[in-house]
Amino acid sequence: MLTAGPAWTASADSPQTPAPLLSGAEEVLVLTSSADLDFAEACLRQARAAGARTTVLFDARAGATVGDGVAAVREVLPVPVVCRSGGTFRARIIIAASPSAATVSIGSGDATPGGWGRDAEVWTHLVADGATVPTLITDLADWLRRLPGLLWIEPVGVERLEAVAALLTARPHAAEADEPLLLANDQVPIVEQLPFAAGADRLGIATNAFDPAGRAFGEIARAVRALQVRLLVPSGVRCDTAGLTAALDEVGGFDETGEVLLQTATDGRYRGAGVVEWWTGDTGVLVTGGLACTPESLLVTAADPGGNCELALLLEVTESLLDERAARDVALGDASLAVRTPEPVPATAARMLALRVHADRVEASLVAAGSTAPDGLVVTVGETSVKLPWTGAEGRLHTYVAEGARLAGRSAQVRAADGTPLGTAVVSDVAVAVTRYTHPSPLEMRDLANVFGDAADLEALFAAVAQLASGRTPRHGVPAAERRAAEEERLRAIVGPALLDFAFGRAAVDAADELALAVMGMDSGQIERLRQQVLRLGGAAAGWPLPPRLAAFRIVLVLAAAGLWPAPQDWTPLVAAGLDSLIAADDEAFAGEQAALATVGIAAVHHGHLLSPLGGFEELRAQVRLDSDPPAELVARYAAGLAGDVLGTEFSAEGIAADAGELLVRSAFDDAVDAIPESVGTVQRSDAGGVLVDTSKDPRRTTLLVLDLLRDFPDTHVTVRGAAGTETHGWWNGRRLVLLQPFGGRWRGSLWPGLMTGIATYAKGASQLPTAARTWITEVAEMGEE
User: Fold this and answer.
1) Residue 30 has pLDDT above 60, yes or no
2) How far apart are CA 643 and CA 648, in angstroms?
3) Mean pLDDT in the chain?
4) Residue 460 in contact with residue 520, Cβ under 8 Å?
5) Is residue 180 within 8 Å of residue 315, measured between CB atoms?
6) Hey, which residues does 260 pair with through a beta bridge?
7) Structural contact between residues 286 and 275, judged by C-beta atoms closer than 8 angstroms
8) What is the four-CA torsion angle of 532, 533, 534, 535, rounded to 10 degrees?
9) N or C, which end of the chain is more exposed by having fewer CB within 10 Å?
């Protein structure tokens, strides 16, 4: 077993765990008193992306902070707990485990930006990667298995504790020399496990909390009876000034040569690391784990009334941790110390644990004493409220379930059915959180700009997009919303959520800035390889379901906006081809995303068309026309970050919306064109707003038929191309008919000014057109005479 530390942590500028986690871990378990779940998700993102389940267990009384979001917490599984003793859960440990190895970090910092980076905390890191596991690891596994007996905890939390314990003990046990000793207080108080030897030279305690009478401190001091006692306390130390002063005076009387030092660190990062050390000569014993100097932490067990749940580590050391912090002498009455008086934790009749969203229900758990449990709950996220009736209890752990209900968000306000406020609860998606990804995309670990700058990441990204096309949920007989939820869950288990967030417009992409810089940083060979990869991706996407088509087209769109193809004549056809592939798919479960991304896509193609005319633009525009307006919020998210040198600085959701009426909303003419029978031939919209027909039938008669079908739209230019490639052009306004037919490399025009009975009989071949009133020869296929 390799050990690093114990040591003070350095300040971290970015979210990260106190030490690297095991590569290839199947389970990552964080135990903490309080938690910042957004921060924890960021820190554990890479482990999650590599396939690990990540669980954060914390004290429900200390609570967890969570930011705003449209989706439930899903990248970590939050497990709030309540100590059955009424005390506080204070163990702080990070475990990453696989069947063949484990990393374990035990320290003093909570899973918050302060505890894991900003503040000076003490951590010890252990690696167990041999053929056997040492005693400390098996002791840790045993403690994890005993924990549910100390806590009010949901079954899903018990499952994760057992899963981690099983991995820790998957190898045979073999004790190692000089192992650190794990100290747990579920059976024996911490103080009774410490190998005190009276008459030590020095005793040092670094903590941020003392009980009012200084009882715990006094008991340790009497057991050690050191010649020098040093307390290192932070600003804001929690104690009773009179009580602790009396305890210090008593310690000073143990030996007339004794010395008592009360100091505070000059470093503002120090918050009280929960360290106890004593020295006899050059031999030191160190206890770490963030222990408070209170009876609840040191003098009683976690099963005793009021006892805290603690976990600590005991090691022999040769250097003092406390001596590493620069400090100055201070008095308890010093205003700069800002002493806080201990306050009792207020008792509550009911304590919310968590809200769990499932595909078919919403569940809530609450800890209450018997008859104090509400008959029902009302949970509110944003404007949505759901009533959850009581469904059962196991001891003080009560469960509430609403079948068929849905909630979207990360935090909910909770009230009892009678209106009594019960505080907030974290909303989590259990099914997603406990899923291990089989083919995670590199977006789980790094931003898109960084992915495009790395050849291996690019290959992995395109492979992950292809994985989205593997299989699909049954479409028939299942409501679209239900099928969408099932399909998202299935795809998330394959590639992780980041690629889905990209495809479905939930993730922002700064294409014109960050991504453009990444493209600018590529050499010519990298650019050409990327262009070829995108072309292959576009070709493959034509046969895929809608979700991977969304991902593929958005990749093409953002790369175009980033300048991968600087000239509009280069990028416009590629974006148009991708858009054509996107709109060819049909899946009502993802119709909103398809409509929104198609709206942004046609606006991009239109911009390119204005710069460099694109053949077939009107045909493409006609195909993209929508039956209803796309979701404005989705359009905005897909459009964000695209405005720049390529698509123009004004390319925004507002500008797209302004053009949508002209570009996208279906007209009666569109419906009439779509209604032309397939038997006529292949019918398309022309770039000039007319109609182009390819037919194997007689071009002249087909022209008359199409003109008659479009008689409600006077003078529509109809072009019919026959099997030989020759064209006939026609215009009809209900009375006047004009036809142009090939004539020696030019066109012969014919005019019938007064066909009062229409042209239907001529189109059907029931009678022949009369002789034209006028004919002429022209160089161009236009309605007017030359």
Assistant:
1) yes
2) 6
3) 90
4) no
5) yes
6) 229
7) yes
8) 50
9) C
Instruction: Provide the token pair at 484.
Output: 């969408």
For 516, the token pair is: 């453009």
Residues 95 and 137: their CA atoms lie apart, in Å, by 10
Closest to 48 in 3D by CA, of 59, 64, 37, 58 = 37
Tokens of 111: 């899973």
- Name the percent of the chain lying above pLDDT 70: 96
- The Cα 679–Cα 719 span in angstroms is 16
Cis ω for the linkage preceding 18 (within 30 of 0): no
Q: Give how far Cα 13 sits from Cα of 115, 254, 611, Å.
A: 13, 46, 45
- pLDDT digits over 609-623, tens only? 889 988 888 777 777
Which one-letter DSSP state was computed for residue 652?
S
212: tokens are: 């009012």
126: Cβ contacts below 8 Å, ≥ 6 apart = 1, 2, 3, 4, 103, 104, 105, 106, 136, 137, 180
CA dihedral 525, 529, 534, 540 (to 10 degrees): 170
Positive or negative: CA dihedral 480, 481, 482, 488 = positive
Q: Which two tokens stand for residue 776?
A: 């002429």
3-state SS, residue 298:
helix
CA angle 654, 658, 659 (to 5 degrees): 120
Whether the CA torsion 32, 38, 43, 48 is positive or negative: it is positive
Residue with tokens 């963030």: 290
The verdict on pTM exceeding 0.90 is no
Q: Decide: 61 and 351 in contact? Cβ < 8 Å.
A: yes
H helix runs in 417-523, sequence order: 430-433, 448-452, 455-467, 480-495, 497-503, 516-520
Token pair, residue 483, equals: 């099928």
Residue type, 315: L
At residue 626, the pLDDT reads 61
Residue 55 to residue 38: CA distance in whole angstroms:
13
- Sequence-distant (6+) residues with CB within 8 A of 644 are 511, 512, 513, 516, 561, 563, 651
- Cα–Cα distance, 736 to 741 (Å, whole number): 17
Instruction: Name the burial class of residue 662, with classes exposed (0-12), middle (13-18) and buried (19+) by CB atoms within 10 angstroms of its CB.
Output: exposed
Tokens of 282: 């050059």
Q: Which two tokens mark 184? A: 């747990």
Determine the Cα–Cα distance for residues 428 and 142; give it in Å rounded to an integer: 28
β partners of residue 278: 203, 285
Looking up tokens 């002789």 gives 771
Encode 314-347: b = buried (16+ Cβ within 10 Å), e = exposed. Answer: bbeeeebbbeebebeebebeeeebebeeeeeeee
Helix and strand numbers (H, E) in the chain are 23, 32
User: Do residues 738 and 700 make contact, with C-beta atoms less than 8 angstroms apart?
Assistant: no
Please answer whether residues 288 and 255 qualify as being in contact, where contact means their C-beta atoms are separated by less than 8 angstroms. no
Checking DSSP bridges between strand 202-206 and strand 228-233, what pairing results, if any?
parallel
Please identify which residue in the block is written with the tokens 């190895």: 101
Coil, helix or strand at residue 280: strand
pLDDT-based confidence at residue 346 (cuts at 50, 70, 90): low
Angle between helices 653-663 and 632-639 (to 10 degrees): 120
